[in-house]
Amino acid sequence: MSDETTNGAAVPAQQDAAGPAFSVEKIYVKDVSFEAPGAPAIFSEQGQPDLQLNLNQRVQRLNEALFEVVLTVTLTCKVGDKTAYVAEVEQAGVFGLVGLQPQAIDVLLGTQCPNILFPYVRQIVGELIQAGGFPPFLLQPINFDALYAETLRQRQQQAGADAAASELPVGNA
């Protein structure tokens, strides 16, 4: 029997041998808000509800290997010109990214992390709306890969515009 076991459990391999790693360290609710400013009168309003969804993501580097990603969803429902409700959820997670190239880190933070957080946001938003006395609402899936691709396209476009502006000749006065 090998002497690399402790109480029957294998000793973990040395960290030096470990390659790139992605880990979910913590998932938590950072902020939650629900408002029904017109209640209870809004419950008797007739008309088709108008829903507006606002999605935002921010990333903060906590240390060399840890990043906080915050996915914010704000859902505003209006009936006519009256606000029925506003639900806002900031769902956050701390993610470990070790041994990865900066481009790979950017991709994971822009796609994988929000994909992990989204089901939590979806559940909380649905529960808030229903607890507020409104019909159940199921937030539809979001393609974070497509959103990330659009962000990259905008970054490249902005970089091209900045480069073109810096190449303009400066006139003599």
Automatic annotation (TrEMBL):
Keywords: Chaperone, Cytoplasm, Protein transport, Translocation, Transport. Pfam families: SecB. It is found in: Cytoplasm. One of the proteins required for the normal export of preproteins out of the cell cytoplasm. It is a molecular chaperone that binds to a subset of precursor proteins, maintaining them in a translocation-competent state. It also specifically binds to its receptor SecA. Belongs to the SecB family. Homotetramer, a dimer of dimers. One homotetramer interacts with 1 SecA dimer. This is Protein-export protein SecB. The gene is secB.
